[in-house]
């Protein structure tokens, strides 16, 4: 192994192990908090608790490992770029792919190990932890009689209390007890009392329950059926009633007992394939049995099938106008009643079968999902590495600051997309194979995009290599800073001034969009709670969806404004933004916006070469024209994207509706409505900016009639205006 590969791998492994251990501790603590109710009050020894944590830990790997790879790769490659180590590599002819080669091999081996781990270790851990939790739940239930719900105590008692009080929770209020008899499996004895008290001696296996002021019901049937008509049940009032509950069996629970073995999360690939095949065969068998049952209910088999049609045609029988008229009125009523009852019962059977089939399909989907998630986890490790490594090289920041924020945002996006797809698959709304791979497939294009960007040494939000070919196809060719050259003594100062001014202008525009999106998201979130409290589920769902969408737009524009701001900082003597300020600004953006809005930035080149610059009218005209056209271009781009969203989404709504995916279609319709509002706002803003630009350079402004036509056919308006700008430059 070469020295460079060894150095990169060593640096990555140090960061990887550190991040993995920290995240493991965080997630284990979260697991303890999650299962604290199952462990508390059970008098468990340290060995059992440690065993529980030991079994739970492997099940956390699908969450911890992808986040560790993503965060480690961003931190390491961001640190390389920040400390100019990549610049040194490039100067010696080493590309980004060559620098990533040793880590790519390591990540490949790690993905292979992850696959075997998810196929063997995680199912074993699920099996052990599930059975241990099940056994712990049976241990000493008298210690944890929960309020407001039925609690099973042993095999015979089912108790519910409204309220517990006292130092040890021994005083009970409003008690209901269902008790099974020794010779019957169902509840035939019910006791209701206003108050009660739990009494038991230390180290005793008998729990004494003393009840006050209540009733005792017993509906155990007598031997003679005639007696049951006279006395259907027994009811007894009591002032004090004492019952003893035997806890000897409950306090001798074997925590190592393994009873559940066939849960889908406990199976490896071979077992899952076998289970899926068995479930499919079982479903076919159930459907065949159901079809036979429905067929037999028609009583077709009871008809005489030996009678030929010719023999019936030879009979000289007058054809009745109505089949029922052949029978007597009494028989007619019986026939109709029988037909209605048969139809009702058959319909009920079919509805129940539909529910049963849905349950079977969902259970089958869970097995398919568990099978493909084992492969998807291994693939996610590789793809998230190719997201994190180039992203770190692009943002050029190491450490635990900005990389941590970006990694968490990306991982939460990946995780919640996967969670949404998984829940949809379990409910039958999405194919389980697609659901298992959905979040990974979403990240795959991003990994390709970022890797190509980092290789070409381009910024994240620079799309000139994509936009320029499209402009040539559409006949649009507007070049930056090509509107009459300014007359300056120092060309370097002129270039620095215009470049810095452009970056600052782009940052300001993105800040404004971020402020609008942030405010809209908060307003929609407030509306969500208002609609939810007023029991308007449809409106509350729409509000929270739009709030999430606007917050995503806010996050994107916030990051874009930061990128332009950092580019501006490099061209000036302004200090960079600290991580604390960055996080504070992201959470409370309006305050950060006000600070940015009213702070006067000065460009370092202008400070250093102030005596060499000649600010004549031509320079002012050039920069003003550039600023107006940039503002128009940004608004027009947003309007153009928003224009096409409803055109694409509205037909998709009807397609989804026809395929019985109304919820997904309705969400798309809401998105198109939101996009339409955004389109109108930014289309009008773009028209306002282009009018100012035309007025500034002496061209005719757009009329009201042309504005109406522009709103209807905006792409044509966009193309024509860019053509006019191109001609005006010539």
Top keywords for this entry?
730 residues; 3 domains
Would you mind describing this structure in some detail?
The protein has helices spanning 3-34, 36-39, 46-56, 61-82, 85-91, 96-138, 225-230, 269-297, 309-314, 329-395, 402-426, 432-455, 464-474, 491-533, 537-570, 579-587, 589-597, 604-608, 617-658, 662-697, 704-712, 714-729, and strands at residues 151-153, 157-165, 171-180, 187-199, 206-218, 234-246. The longest helix has 67 residues, at 329-395. The protein has 3 domains: 3-138 and 369-453, no CATH class; 143-252, no CATH class; 466-513 and 564-576 and 590-729, no CATH class. It has a 6-stranded antiparallel β-sheet with strand order 1-2-3-4-5-6, with no helix packed on it. Helix 6 (96-138) crosses helix 10 (329-395), helix 15 (537-570) crosses helix 20 and helix 19 packs antiparallel against helix 20 (662-697). The chain is extended. The relative contact order is 0.06. It is an alpha+beta fold and 730 residues long. The chain crosses the membrane at residues 12-36, 52-78, 99-117, 375-395, 402-421, 433-451, 509-531, 543-563, 575-594, 634-656, 663-682, 702-720.
Number of extended strands: 6
Q: What's the total helix number?
A: 22
Low confidence ranges: 250-258, 473-492, 598-620
Structural domains: how many: 3
Strand content: 5-15%
Structural class: alpha+beta
Mean pLDDT: 74
> Biggest β-sheet, characterized?
6 strands, antiparallel
Order the strands across the largest sheet as they lie in space.
Answer: 1-2-3-4-5-6
Give Rg in angstroms: 37 Å
First-last Cα distance: 58 Å
Subcellular location: Cell membrane
Protein name: YjgP/YjgQ family permease
Transmembrane segments: 12-36, 52-78, 99-117, 375-395, 402-421, 433-451, 509-531, 543-563, 575-594, 634-656, 663-682, 702-720
Keywords: Cell membrane, Membrane, Transmembrane, Transmembrane helix
